[in-house]
Design a protein that fits this description.
With 698 residues, this protein is α/β, with parallel strands linked by helices.
């Protein structure tokens, strides 16, 4: 059974900046992610991942379209080998490369936006190509509606060491009466270090020296030399120090009397704003006042002083205010209080894992919990063997506070005795006999008697895989706002006709995990894909409130009741999500004729429900067969070609499924006739039910 979520993290591999440290902190803070790090080039970031023991790969990537296309091809090969559940790409460049590489494979991609770079067409393109987004600041989502966008601020760090120890570690020894302004930033023009240097030359900042913890960026290798010369020209060279890379600034931020975040636009990057400012939060945590430009000043709030962008005079004025010891203590205390408004690394890591796992259809992946307690409800009638197999699979998965409610509709064989013996052997198993109850009535009776608010259902004849209940429990625990959880089922098949029917009539779980373009298009056109709003009773879970709001399972339907129930939950305003790991095995009927009878009854359920989506789907297929037959019999060459092309498209995915499975030649050859028999059986059932309803209403 899979546990942790397999995540491929795609980042710039070079300079280890705030965006890269953000990801490392969250990965360090949770054990729910199995990470493979892929660097666009090698460098400090890939080295940091390697030191943590994570698998690391590099993909060279330049700036030209040709080099990006080459990088995407190489990344696609890596992803095909690693087979992650999801890709997490940092920044626009990594996002575009990852989306191009992963989209053909169907692996979902989430991109992390740390700043407003490349605003416009590239961002809109990524919003369309990716399945979700993480923004490090709320303003990065303003004016846009990306799929599954969440704001996840960088987490607050543990408090720093005492100031004296921090200064000793950094080699800082200010003269009496001298104050230290810190900046933790890459040495590039847009970080605004120049504005701090210029501020030192103004009267208000005479008591301050500037200490910069950061490394030169390969994109601007001469920037530090330029700043050193500027300090000399302004006569403040002895008050400006560059410390180089400090691996953990948060631990020594207490060495500073104030910290500045002065990011500004440049001619090359006129869009630029600081998205969040990790160093600002690190300073707040240590009780260090923050001098910040927008929007970081909003993060600091009362724990800092705002300054305008590219205004050294504002910086000097703020430093003059902070020269007063009492003012520094007051703002520093406010900074500590403000830091508590942000999650710690553990909470932020859990939230990231939850977001990624939900988008990968594995909610709660890697999360081990025994809460909430679950009530499992199943109905049965004259199925001794099926109930025995179900009990054997489910009872070992029950937690100490769980229960299994078996509702017997009045069996006349040994089924009731099987349930009674199980209840006598295990107090968590309860038998309820409700003679004459169909599957919907039986479920409603069992749910009404259930002790817990979280309810799971499966059918006799299904065998839940190990971890089925744990997957549902984790989903409930991590996402209590979701009302309906739809699990998956794997259709058992051995004989060629069984394989053909499984391929033609039921979705495949691997297509939910990695739906390539063809699978997505097929699902939109023809259905037969996993849809959280259309569950089956084989594997489904929900809250009692959602069940009540939906009016329970519709008892007037003998079949199709589970799908209509799911749609009613969603119509009542509840969210529905998939749980890929909540898998059961389901055996088809023993003969093809028995399966066609079952499918006819499914069609009758659609007809009796009068649900436009369910009934319309079956009737549309019936109409397609009628029209297609007429066109092939009497149509012209063009119309026949169109009809044959439509049939080929309709059969394309079932044929591909059969060809990948066992006994591919025999199963593939049977797909067309079996698919037609299946569709026509359902259509006949739907039409019969509609006709019967019309006769009753006359």
């Amino acid at each position: 059974m899979r546990t942790g979520l397999r995540v491929a993290v795609v980042q710039q591999g070079g300079v280890l900046g705030g965006a890269e440290r953000w990801q490392l902190q969250l990965a360090d803070a949770t054990d729910r992610l199995d990470v493979t790090a892929i660097g666009l080039g090698a460098g400090a970031t890939t080295a940091a991942w390697a030191r943590r023991g994570w698998p690391v790969a590099t993909v060279p990537a330049g700036r030209s379209l040709a080099r990006l296309a080459t990088a995407a091809r190489r990344l696609r090969r890596l992803l095909a080998r690693e087979r992650p559940d999801i890709v997490l790409a940092h920044g626009v460049k990594a996002g575009l490369v990852a989306a191009a590489a992963a989209r053909p494979t169907g692996i979902p991609v989430v991109w992390v936006r740390h700043d407003a770079s490349y605003a416009g067409a590239p961002v809109r393109l990524l919003d369309r190509l990716t399945q979700g987004q993480v923004a490090t600041s709320s303003w990065l989502l303003e004016g846009r509606t990306p799929r599954a966008g969440v704001v996840l601020n960088p987490p607050r760090r543990p408090g720093p060491v005492p100031a004296a120890e921090a200064r000793a570690l950094l080699g800082i020894d200010p003269a009496p009466g001298e104050l230290v302004l810190g900046m933790a930033a890459r040495v590039v023009r847009h970080k605004g270090i120049e504005d701090a240097v210029r501020a030192l030359a103004l009267p208000g900042a005479a008591a301050w020296e500037l200490v910069v913890a950061g490394v030169p960026d390969p994109a601007e290798p001469d920037e530090q030399d330029r700043l050193v010369k500027l300090a000399a020209d302004l006569g403040v060279a002895e008050r400006v120090r560059f410390l180089g890379e400090i691996p953990d600034v948060a631990r020594v931020v207490s060495a500073f009397d104030a910290l500045a975040v002065l990011t500004k636009p440049t001619a090359a990057e006129p869009w630029l704003r600081e998205a969040f400012g990790m160093s600002a939060l690190e300073a707040l945590t240590g009780g260090v006042p923050v001098v910040a430009v927008p929007p970081v000043d909003e993060i600091a709030a009362a724990g800092g002083l705002p300054v305008r962008v590219a205004r050294p005079d504002d910086v000097a004025a703020a430093l003059a205010t902070l020269a007063d010891a009492g003012t520094r203590r007051r703002i520093g205390a406010a900074a500590r209080r403000r830091a508590l408004d942000f999650p710690d690394a553990g909470a932020a890591g859990r939230r990231l894992a939850d977001h990624l796992a939900l988008l990968a259809h594995r909610p709660g992946a890697g999360h081990r919990t025994m809460t909430p307690p679950l009530s499992v409800v199943t109905t049965v009638l004259d199925d001794e063997q099926g109930l025995t197999e179900l009990l054997t699979a489910v009872v070992p998965q029950l937690g100490p506070d769980d229960e299994l409610v078996v509702v017997d509709g009045g069996s006349t064989d040994g089924t009731t005795e099987v349930a009674r013996r199980a209840a006598e052997a295990d107090s968590r198993v309860r038998l309820v006999v409700e003679r004459g109850a169909g599957i919907s009535r039986g479920r409603n009776v069992g749910i009404g008697l259930a002790r817990h608010d979280a309810v799971a259902c499966t059918d006799a004849g299904c065998v839940p895989a190990p971890g089925w209940l744990a997957a549902l429990r984790g989903a409930f625990d991590r996402h209590p706002d979701v009302g309906l959880w739809t699990g998956t089922y794997r259709v058992l098949a051995e004989r060629p006709w069984e394989l053909a029917l499984a391929a033609a009539g039921y979705p495949a779980i691997d297509e939910l995990a990695r739906p390539g373009p063809g699978v997505r298009a097929y699902g939109r056109l023809f259905g037969r894909s996993f849809d959280p709003s259309m569950p089956t009773g084989r594997s489904v879970a929900f809250t009692r409130r959602a069940w009540a709001d939906a009016g329970g399972f519709p008892e007037h339907l003998a079949t199709g009741e589970d799908v209509l129930f799911g749609r009613s939950i969603v119509a009542a305003g509840h969210r529905a999500r998939m749980v890929r790991d909540a898998e059961v095995a389901w055996a088809q009927r023993p003969t093809l004729l028995a399966n066609l009878r079952m499918l006819r009854r499914y069609g009758e359920g659609s007809g009796h429900s009068l649900d436009p989506r369910l009934l319309g789907r079956d009737l549309a297929r019936a109409a397609s067969y009628a029209v297609g037959a007429a066109v092939l019999a009497r149509g012209g060459r063009t119309s026949r070609a169109v009809a044959l092309a439509g049939a080929a498209g309709y059969l394309s995915l079932p044929v591909a499924r059969a060809a990948r499975g066992p006994r591919p030649l025999a199963a593939t050859a049977l797909v067309p006739p079996v698919a037609a028999a299946r569709d026509l059986a359902k259509a006949w059932g739907a039409l019969s039910a509609v006709a019967a309803g019309v006769r009753r209403r006359r």
